[in-house]
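Problem 12. The chain below contains 443 residues. Write out its predicted structure in token notation.
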Amino acid sequence: MDNKILAGFSKVKITPPAGTPLGGNVRDKGAQGVHDDLFAKSVVLSDGKREISFTSCALIGIPGTMVKQIRAKVEDLCKIPGEYSQIVAFHTHSGPETGIIFDEVNRDYLNELPGIIAQGICQARESMEEVNLYICRGEEKTLCNNRRIWMKNGTLRMNWENLELDQVKGPAGPVDPEVGVLVAENKKGQITGIILNYTCHPAILAGDNFLISEDYPGYTMRLIEEKTNGVCIFTNGATGNINHINIFDPHQKRGFYEAQRLGTILGEKVLSIMEKRILLNVKDINLHRKIIQLPLRQISPEKIKWAKSLVEGKKIKKVSLVDGISDEVYARQIIALSKIRDKFLTTELDVLSLEDKLALVSIPGELFVEYGLKIKEHSPFSYTYIVGYANDYIGYIPTKKAFEEGGYEVRTGAASKLASEAGDMILKETLELLNVAYQSSRA
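Solution.
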């Protein structure tokens, strides 16, 4: 098998039953039905020396404990070593809560999920065949907007708030409109799989939606699969402060209409740039990992006192919100976080590389786009793509500047618990890991 790359793809349904609590937004009831099914899609790659699996799931996020369960099952069922399995989510806000943010979950469903995902990976392994790999890239600016907005009076607001447009100064940061696509084509000239990377929150369907859905990535993937007959795997980038809301578009809507409109635009862009794909002459694939410790935020006595005064001993009615989180929910999360005695959390960073050409950088949370752009800028690889929500979920990873500015993503809660220096630490460790992977590929 020297000088050959093998790849196998699969998709398995992971749609939860009605009534399952949904993740991403505060809702007062569980899923009322299914608009479109959720899938875990996998690819297993082999260079003849090692097999590496990569799976993207239509989930809000995957806790590290579940990742360990999936890896153990994959190792048992199809002998791929646990350290060679990448398990990521693409963060749909209309999928099941997995316990990463809210405590209400469908425990029976979550207990079955690792086995279903592992079986899908083994199916991909069984379908491996010799392929050529192609790469292409482009830009799509229609979907992505920085959701942090400066007002003329010096305050920072979020773009889902009811803003007076004549008082808007502009976005507080950049976007990353790059569309990255890896295509696998078998020796018969058939496309067997597509790995797509883009940076935008799948939160077009928000807290007023009670139907299970893959949001805009579902429309994108279904269009591409219909046109190519390959399995399309969507991965999300450094989306921590990026969503779809264009405050200057008075006609923009929420809901399934908008998810379909924007998902179709992205799908058509991918199909367009695929026509200009170039062959990647690669012989080796590899995976480099680093286990890191990140400092947790220390919660002040004043904040704990505030939280207790708001909710302790009181029955709080859960109220659905289209966007954001209520003070009462934050208060309960702050009380829970204050009971954690650890000062650090342990997680991982990973780089899946194709020789010295392509690197998929797995980050275990919601990285701010500024970090994603810096990683791409300083990476030694020709093509570098950030894969967020990967192998764990540690919440938002804002910049130090964002901590100074304030805003939704830095407010202490279950999804925002890292100290302000954590982002710079991740940036440093990621660039070092990329350099290690690059030097290894050229040895």
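Discussion. Residues 5 and 434 are 22 Å apart (CA to CA). Students who got a different answer should revisit the alignment rule from Section 12.3.
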